[in-house]
Amino acid sequence: MPNMPLTPSKNVDFGVFLILWNKTQNYTTPMIHFRIANWFEVCWSTGKKRLLLKAFRGSGKSSLTALFSAWLLYRDPDLRILVLAAEQTLASKMVRNIRKIIQTHPLTKPLIPKTKEEWAADRLTVDRARTQRDPSVIARSISSNITGLRADVVICDDVEVPNTCETPEKREDLRERLAEASYILTPDGTHIYLGTPHSWESIYLDVPKKELGIEDVFLKEYERLSLPLITSKGESAWPERFPLEDIEALKKQTGPQKFASQMLLEPVNISDSRLDPALMKRYAAELDISESQQILQLRLNGRRLVSCSAWWDPAFGNADGDSSVLAVIFSDEVGQYYLHDLIYIKHDPTLAEEEAISQSIQVARIAKKYFIPSVSVETNGIGKFLPAILRTQMAEYKVPCAVVEKNSTRAKELRILEGFDAVLAAHALHAHESIYQTPFITEMQDWRPGLKGQKDDGLDAVAGALSQQAVRVQRSYHGMRQFWQGGGQSHTAQTEFEI
Length: 499
Known about the structure:
By secondary structure, the chain is an alpha/beta fold. Helix content is 30%, strand content 21%. The chain has 13 helices and 18 strands. It has helices at residues 14-24, 31-45, 61-75, 88-104, 162-165, 168-181, 244-254, 256-262, 355-369, 386-396, 412-425, 440-446, 457-467; strands at 50-55, 81-85, 123-124, 137-141, 151-157, 185-195, 223-227, 281-283, 288-292, 295-300, 303-313, 324-332, 337-345, 374-378, 402-406, 429-432, 474-477, 480-483.
């Protein structure tokens, strides 16, 4: 009897489909992935059409959902799947993953069409019996126009991110756009959400927040699976990849608020956040500057400094308005941060009649005093024309300091919270005693997220400096070679933080 080609059974369950895929990729299948796969299949087989999967960052929820999509097409090639994400690139990433699975998985190769008229990064059409206007899989951002599309499955993959939920207006707009996506579904279609909470008013809330005026949860009728990184028993949900000691390091690295939101799936109330000056370490030491064999080294309290960041948040005019503030922060070899100077800059007409030039001269002098390799200038509003003026003054005073233009697009309260959260929680931020003579400490004590009219310009400048990547430069400084690494050797600071 001649060998006949085997036709795979369409009854292969999703768990087996997952194992076969992992074998082709030389992966093992962790228990958490079996749990997600079983949940997907049980929901599908029992006719549940509204699904919400909340799982910690790095859990593989998007990759598993791409596999689930390929499995659905394997079982029914006539299905139409719409992938929505906060950005087009993220939605296209899942479609590319689905395409790769179909091309590689031993059970889905018959789905590959003979003529690939639609086989792109953002859309694909498999070999199917029914002629349909819509592709088998298509990617769209949540902000794009999806009117006219029809889908049997809509997947909302991380539609709630900071850019779509950081203000009340954006949160309302997100809900309206997601409600519109419901009209794309066929009457018996399936709607799947994947994500982690990024807001206290998250679309993924399990219970109403009546104190916020939220009388009902957004995804009320949805079947839910919630998988935080740490289980109710205090164990890691994925111990092979996230052992407990690595989880503790991750918590220090990201800060308690972001860790609670992204890894424990707890909506974080930013209004509960406080910046406690007691969490900083006060010091009185001045910079110890030394030169050996034309190598310049900076030390504080005996520790060699390996990087410096400076952030200027400028303001002019009314003394009762915003303050113009320059923050200077150093870091050492063991990941400690030193807020060494914080200057609330005032117009000095003895330097120049024009305030922009007067302030730029003061910034240039500070850069020269502390051997600052670069200054970031916030260019929102009045700051647009300042970098050119500051570069002129740097050249005039022979200061070899770069001027970097920075345009802040995120809400100030989020920038401040994220800048301070991790370093304060780890007690890694030191403040020079001169800082306690400025308005900065009062700003910390009085700061309340969302409170209008509060003084927070010093906080914003320090958060900006903390957000900068460590600067490592080799630059000629008054005839000397300035090696922040010491000895001209390449060096990377040992730090637990990704600031």
